Amino acid sequence: MKKCSLLIICFVLVTSVISAASPIKSILNKYKDDKNCTILTFNSSFLNLKSGGKEENLIKKFDFLRIVAFEGESNFKDDIKRAKLDKYYAELMRIKEDSNEVKMYLLEEGNVIKEFLMVITGKDDALIQIKGNFSKSDLSDIGNSLDIDKLSHLKKLEELEK
After folding, report:
1. What pTM was estimated for this model as a whole?
2. How many CA atoms lie within 13 A of 156 on its CB side?
3. Measured between alpha carbons, how far is residue 68 from residues 6, 7, 71, 100, 153 in Å?
4. Is the alpha carbon torsion for 124, 49, 146, 110 positive or negative?
5. Which residues share a beta bridge with 115?
């Protein structure tokens, strides 16, 4: 009986640790079949096909780039609030623009960024997720090289690292 109880407790702990480790994954699972949600995931192989020049070295540091965009009404903002991202990620920047709020988060190990998140809520709801091994200056380069309007704020990161 004690062994059975101990096994159940261990299972519950392991399950809760695994589910707590990725709040973004649980949000993605919720919306993966939603007709108003588009999820684009570009793995490193695809990104390397599209890269060239200065971006080539940068892209090699990515495991994947994911873009999640919502059309119409969604509960994304509420789901993001419930996920309490600031428990798992360091908030890098917050921008209030028109009716949208943009928050950028990092997951770092030492000076290496393992994950970058950009969460946009308001009139437009979207998420940009980049996983890999890169630096803040690499993120600044991303802001310079990708033609995504909200990423232009990343240009300021290069100054922070100096």
Report:
1. 0.74
2. 9
3. 40, 38, 10, 16, 19
4. positive
5. 107, 131
